[in-house]
Amino acid sequence: MGRPSNSEERRQQIVAGLLRIMAERGYERASVAEIARAAGLSPGLVHYHFKDKQEILLTLVEQLSARVRERVAARLARVKAEDARARVDAFLEAFLATGADADPAAVASWVTISAEAIQQPEVRAIYEKVVREDLEHLEELVGAVTGKRRARTVAAGLFAAIQGYFVLAASVPGLVPPGSAVGTVKRMAAGLLDAAQPPEEA
């Protein structure tokens, strides 16, 4: 695989700059000048690579989604395909577990993005697309345990819990005991999966 082009490197720097500013101060206060400063570039270079701030934001949504999907894939790769419950847990761990690949700035930015999705139709469109795809993946994993009939309800409840933890972690740091989110949601999952599992046939 070849080295990324200078242009692509600059784009990555700019997106990373927006991520840093958003994690600290939100989207509204992320001016192009602030993004440029965080990226170590001039405002002119930011304008050269992106037509406006929203285009940077849309690129960031795609990149954050790709990152978490890489975490999901890595954790699923460690679990046997036939261990359906462990695969649900692996998905939850990818979203909520702390560790070397955890990214609190990305979580804070994701919460900001969800708020922007309410206000900006273009952000809502891409946000809805990636959230639906992630929910559908979780639904598929849950369905392997429960059967299809209850899978959407259970998956939606677990996914809402994930998003709720994101909001609390970003908006009220220290409120949730460190490292407790994944264990709590996995226990929720166990209860929901037990309750939704189809009865064994005689």
Q: What coarse outline follows from CA principal-axis ratios?
A: elongated
Tell me the radius of gyration. Answer: 19 Å
Fourth-level CATH superfamily of the largest domain = Tetracycline Repressor, domain 2
Largest sheet: none
Which key terms come to mind for this protein?
202 residues, Arc Repressor Mutant, subunit A, Tetracycline Repressor, domain 2, 2 domains, 9 helices, 0% strand, elongated
Question: What this model shows, in words?
Answer:
- By secondary structure, this protein is mostly helical.
- It folds into two domains: 1-50, Homeodomain-like (Arc Repressor Mutant, subunit A, Orthogonal Bundle); 53-196, Orthogonal Bundle (Tetracycline Repressor, domain 2).
- It is 77% helix and 0% strand.
- The chain has nine helices and no strands.
- Helix 6 crosses helix 7.
- The longest helix has 26 residues, at 121-146.
- The chain is elongated and about 65 Å long.
- The mean pLDDT is 92.
Quick gist of this model?
This protein is mainly alpha-helical. It has helices at 6-25, 32-39, 43-49, 53-77, 84-96, 104-119, 121-146, 148-171, 180-196. The protein folds into two domains: 1-50, Orthogonal Bundle (Arc Repressor Mutant, subunit A), CATH 1.10.10.60; 53-196, Tetracycline Repressor, domain 2, CATH 1.10.357.
Q: How is the secondary structure organized here?
A:
Blueprint: H1 6-25, H2 32-39, H3 43-49, H4 53-77, H5 84-96, H6 104-119, H7 121-146, H8 148-171, H9 180-196
Helix pairs in contact: 1-2, 1-4, 1-6, 2-3, 4-5, 4-7, 5-7, 5-9, 6-7, 6-8, 7-8, 8-9
